[in-house]
Request: fold
Amino acid sequence: MSKTSIAVLGGLLLALTTQVQAAAVDDLQAQLRAQGAGPFSAAAGDTLWHSKSIHAGEARSCASCHGADLTKGGRHVTTGKSIEPMAPSVNPQRLSDVAKMQKWLKRNCHWTFGRQCTAQEQGDILAYLRTL
Ligand code: HEC
Reply:
């Protein structure tokens, strides 16, 4: 295969991955809108992601496990297991599966804030993460 066709194929693959992510986030945000939430704000998601909340006697935030730089990997604060980077720009698997996003938003909001995130908050977080 020529270098040009490899480059073209690479570009196509990247475009396809980006589309899968965009479709999955659009899909989940549409479900959240159907619950009355929206419009979603990346800035509000950024603020929420970095906000510290005292839960179970310690200051917790989404960065506790995912780390300060989302283009780098994180480390699970209780199990010590490494976590792949959250930014979809460096980790194409991120935000590509609605069920996975729902499952972890549920678990992680509960662990971090001691409550579920509202539909609005979930949509805002996704709006923020998709820009990374
Ligand atoms: C106690 C550690 C921990 C904290 C704190 C945490 N997460 Fe996570 N998160 C994980 C783990 C573990 C996974 C699943 C493994 C993986 O996908 O790397 C995950 C996965 C996710 C995913 C799935 C992304 C995808 O599509 O692959 C989302 C979304 C997410 N977290 C959002 C959040 C948000 C929002 C917060 C703050 C409210 C948060 N996380 C705080 C550990 C944590």
Summary: The mean pLDDT is 91.
